[in-house]
Here is the input.
Amino acid sequence: MGSLFLVLAEPGAGKTELLSQLGQLLNVTPTRASVFRNKALAAAPQALVIDAMDEVARVDPLGVEDIIVKASESGSGTVIFAGRSSEWDTAETEHVKDYFGIEPVVVKLKAFTLSEQRQLFAASFPGESFDAFSAECARFELDALLGNPQFLLLFGEAYIESGRHFVSKKVIYLDAVRRLAHEANPRVKRPNRPPDGDIVEMACEVFAKLMLSGSASVSSSESLTSSDYPYLRSLVADNPQDAHFLADTRLLKPSFEPGLHEPVHRIVAEYCAARYLVRRIDNPADRLSLARVLSVVAPKGTVRTELRGMLGWMAALAQGSTQRQLIGLDPYAVVANGDPSEFTTNSKKTLLQTLSMLAETNPLFRRNDAWRQFNVGTFFTADIRDDVAALMNPAIDSPLRDLILELLSSSHASGQFEGELRTLALDGASRRDVRKAAYSLLLEGTKYDPRPDIPALLSENRGGSVCLNSFGRFAQWFAALVMPRSILAAAD
Here is the structure.
């Protein structure tokens, strides 16, 4: 099958757990890319499993290239690279191919099926009803994300913490973090343990400093302190003596290396770090300004690759001009992370405008992320309907239009755009995948009657275009489902 692999996945898809299992099969310990880059290799290893390549992809892409070169020169029989799909460019795949001299096997993790979601939920939350949980997620249009195992677990934690009734997406994440900070075992006595809320704030501070510094883990022992593993107590400004309580929560987990701890998941770290930074930026008495934060997060106006998820959450949690400034820096990161449904009308319009400009200057702005599933909740409100409709113009073949069609599906908001979707579905000049996506969205609604459009679709089957013939065959199959045979005969 091959000895060189690229494992690409969306955040929370289970990549790190998969690598841990692969490491056990190969009898090696997975290594973070940031650690591998500076690690001396004594001899040719049997195998290399290198995780979090996206965390090294700074403004200078040579960091990733250094790791690829070092791995290719290691003499290892099997090499596995892994990272976020959204931060991995096609050019980097070509680098891997050139340095190793063979074609890498690219692996992308699939979303969990409904049956797999049930199994994971039942194993993680015994006695709870998956159907009730799923219905509550659907109420906030989060059901499309349940195929991602980490999201399912986070939402499950929030579901329990909130008393099985969600309030908002931002509160859902905060409830999940509170749940992870809570001491679940009543038999364990923790004298002088701070309240859960204080531990959450401590975690937010620690995670923000880890992410801004590029460090992967914290050390619980001062003797192990290094630039890669800062001492946990050194990251807590107030009451550092309480920092060890954080290590006893589920917000941190043991790292691959002994004596080290890392955030339970990067999604959690990104949310917590954003919360800490925004709270300080919003405090007029605090000297930490937005300009100072952005000098680290986005030097020279370019967002550091590994901080795009955190920036998305910062935009979701910020307000006013701060929010709009963050949107302008990286609009796609804002869509793919955080909660743009909470934006004001002005911020939503700013997001659509900056996305449109981005799509014009960089049609490949989604990188390898085009297959990923996410949603934007109730983003598609009446106050921006016309702005969204303008981006669905069939005369403009844009990757942004493709993204909007995906988001309309995951957000169950297609009913507002029946006219635009019908125009796309019937437009013979549009791409076949766009037309099918538009028709699928139309069929999600309850008001759309497909029967008047069937004759026009069937007529394409008699055209000369291969693409149109293919779509016409689809139309014949579709028509057989929704129209009586008498009407079909009349149409022919």
